[in-house]
């Protein structure tokens, strides 16, 4: 089989296997990235007189197309949480790709309003599947030394998808772009079937021998190797300590325990900062924003959106390098602060509209760079590292549902608010969220790099932390 023949070509041992597996695993996120970016070049095209639809699509329909994936994704998160726990991580990821394939197929079939909105609604299952399953999969197949780097590949793959569809939307026709996007989930369905289930889930299902084999392949060792036995025993011990219980019982335990509840509050707060920093709105409506901000530039609005995709990709590569070198907290705090400053400058420019187009374009690029370099990937890494196996699935489901609900509201109201009040107000709100979140990160978020949950919780309970808890409450109220 493919997964075993790869071994003889492995020069970096287990790290090679983990990278190959994660590279295949993030293809659904790549496909989700194409779905996000697709609306930026295709939205203006659908609204134009030269539309591929029967008639120009109304602006409200475009707003619903942006919002509905996350509206559907909010309850779909819990569906995928059930699938992950009862049918496995591998099947859940393959179902994610199947839903993305259905989305692109429906868009190819029809350009009617019902088809466009329904296809975008199906994307909601891809959103949920990608971001419920992917962090869990990475946590359960990777070694501690490279977990942060592999975690950053999630956002890197999403950004690659954005860039691909920006370029395709500018230089290729409508249907050709759709066929290219459809090929991604189909490729994943064909290749990922060769990959094993995670050792943690196999142990949970009572398949100890299969778990040993999967772990040995991931670590590039023989099943009887002492290192494999040692890690397998550690996984078994974790499962014994965190035995599987019902969702509501886990939720009760999550809230009743002081340490886990504090970790949960921190996770929700940095998720709020990540989703309300405005970057998703910029990505969905990049061409429209550039159309207002950059009149007179040599590049047109779609080409500048493509430039934004390049900047985003560079930021993702930076995250892959820095997330292990600098630590989670410094990277998250710095990128949040710089995003806040750049968004404040952007809001000021839209308020007075003085000077050339260089400032808004530079501010947008800097904001997207910081989002890709820290604001997007780091909260996922922190979330998986602050909770044990017992809470990980439940917390992931709740956090992703919370994020989808926030984004669905943000994208639905972005265009109406921009039209009625102005882009200066919208970007000013985004800037305020980032700056307040920076203060919260500085005083309340722990460093999780190369630390166990016990060590993180010990910091919560350590001397001198009462002041931090008071600060956390104050910043949260603000």
Would you summarize the structure shown here?
The chain has 478 residues and is mostly helical. 81% of the residues lie in helices and 0% in strands.
Walk me through this protein's architecture.
- By secondary structure, this protein is mainly α.
- Helix content is 81%, strand content 0%.
- It has 23 helices and no strands.
- It has helices spanning 2-5, 14-25, 27-47, 59-87, 89-109, 113-141, 147-171, 174-192, 199-204, 208-218, 226-241, 247-256, 258-275, 279-284, 286-293, 301-325, 328-352, 358-375, 377-385, 389-420, 423-444, 453-461, 466-477.
- Helix 17 runs antiparallel to helix 18 (358-375).
- The longest helix has 32 residues, at 389-420.
- It is globular, with a radius of gyration of 22 Å.
- The N and C termini lie far apart (56 Å).
- Residues 1-13 and 463-467 have low confidence and may be disordered.
Please give the structural blueprint.
Layout: H1 2-5, H2 14-25, H3 27-47, H4 59-87, H5 89-109, H6 113-141, H7 147-171, H8 174-192, H9 199-204, H10 208-218, H11 226-241, H12 247-256, H13 258-275, H14 279-284, H15 286-293, H16 301-325, H17 328-352, H18 358-375, H19 377-385, H20 389-420, H21 423-444, H22 453-461, H23 466-477
Helix pairs in contact: 3-4, 3-5, 3-6, 3-7, 3-8, 4-5, 4-6, 4-20, 5-6, 5-8, 6-7, 6-20, 7-16, 7-19, 10-11, 12-13, 12-20, 13-20, 13-21, 15-16, 16-18, 17-18, 17-19, 17-21, 20-21, 21-23
């Amino acid at each position: 089989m493919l997964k075993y023949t790869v071994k003889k070509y492995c020069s970096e041992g287990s790290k090679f296997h983990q990278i190959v597996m994660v590279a295949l695993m993030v293809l659904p996120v790549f496909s989700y990235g194409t779905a996000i970016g697709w609306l930026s070049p295709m939205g203006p095209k659908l609204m134009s007189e030269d539309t591929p639809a029967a008639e120009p699509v109304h602006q409200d329909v475009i707003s619903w197309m942006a919002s509905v994936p996350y509206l559907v994704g909010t309850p779909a998160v819990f569906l995928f949480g059930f699938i992950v726990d009862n049918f496995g991580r591998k099947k859940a990821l393959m179902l994610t790709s199947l839903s993305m394939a259905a989305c692109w197929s429906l868009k190819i079939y029809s350009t009617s309003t019902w088809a466009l909105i329904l296809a975008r609604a199906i994307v909601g299952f891809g959103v949920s599947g990608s971001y419920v399953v992917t962090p869990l999969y990475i946590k359960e197949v990777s070694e501690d030394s490279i977990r942060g780097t592999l975690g950053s590949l999630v956002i890197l793959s999403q950004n690659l998808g954005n860039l691909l569809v920006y370029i395709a939307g500018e230089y290729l026709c409508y249907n050709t772009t759709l066929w290219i996007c459809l090929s991604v989930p189909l490729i994943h369905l064909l290749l990922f079937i060769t990959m094993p289930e995670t050792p943690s889930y196999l142990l949970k299902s009572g398949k100890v021998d299969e778990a040993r084999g999967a772990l040995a392949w991931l670590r590039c060792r023989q099943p009887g190797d002492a290192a494999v036995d040692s890690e397998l025993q550690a996984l078994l011990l974790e499962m014994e300590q965190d035995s599987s219980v019902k969702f509501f019982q886990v939720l009760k335990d999550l809230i009743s325990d002081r340490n886990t509840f504090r970790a949960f509050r921190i996770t929700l707060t940095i998720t709020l900062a990540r989703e309300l920093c405005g970057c998703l709105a910029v990505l969905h409506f990049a061409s429209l924003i550039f159309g207002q901000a950059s009149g007179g530039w040599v590049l047109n609005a779609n080409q500048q959106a493509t430039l934004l995709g390049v900047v985003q990709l560079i930021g993702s590569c930076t995250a892959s390098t820095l997330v292990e070198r600098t630590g989670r907290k410094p990277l998250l705090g710095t990128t949040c602060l710089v995003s806040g400053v750049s968004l404040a400058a952007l809001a000021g420019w839209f308020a007075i509209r003085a000077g050339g187009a260089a400032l808004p374009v530079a501010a947008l690029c800097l904001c997207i760079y910081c989002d890709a370099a820290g604001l997007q990937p780091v909260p996922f890494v922190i979330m998986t590292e602050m909770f044990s196996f017992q809470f990980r699935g439940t917390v992931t489901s709740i956090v992703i549902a919370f994020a989808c609900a926030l984004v669905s509201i943000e994208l639905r109201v972005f265009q109406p608010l921009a039209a009625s009040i102005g882009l200066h107000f919208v970007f000013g709100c985004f800037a305020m969220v980032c700056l307040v979140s920076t203060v919260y990160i500085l005083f309340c978020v722990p460093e999780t790099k190369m630390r166990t949950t016990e060590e993180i919780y010990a910091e919560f309970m350590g001397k001198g932390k009462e002041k931090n808890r008071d600060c956390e409450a104050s910043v949260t109220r603000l």
